[in-house]
Amino acid sequence: MAKSLRCSEVFPGCLFVARGVDDDAVVSIALLHAQEKHALATTDWEVLTKLCGAIRQDDDKSSAA
Fold first, then answer.
1. How many other CB atoms are there within 10 angstroms of residue 8's CB atom?
2. 8 A C-beta contact, residue 42 and residue 35
3. Which residues contact 59 (CB under 8 A, 6 or more apart)?
């Protein structure tokens, strides 16, 4: 089952959506986006907890990365 994370749940106002086949893939995509677009310099437990908490089951199976 595909998973997704709306960046706006962690960084309000951002329209990016990370999609992947599982939680690990979604977190990897979201971290790369956060580093590039939100100047996230380090990854700590607080950031990882927020990202993991924002992951949802993706209802649109055609959108999986």
1. 13
2. no
3. none
Question: Does residue 40 come out as left (phi exceeding 0), alpha (psi in the -120 to 50 range) or beta?
Answer: beta
Which residues are bridge partners to 19 per DSSP? 4
Q: What is the domain partition of the chain in residue ranges?
A: 3-60
Measured at the CA of 6, the angle between CA 21 and CA 29, to 5 degrees, comes to 50
| Other beta carbons less than 10 A from residue 39's beta carbon | 7
The predicted-structure confidence for 7-57, as pLDDT tens digits, reads as follows 999 999 999 999 999 999 999 999 999 999 999 988 889 989 999 999 999
Among 10, 1, 16, 11, CA closest to 49: 10
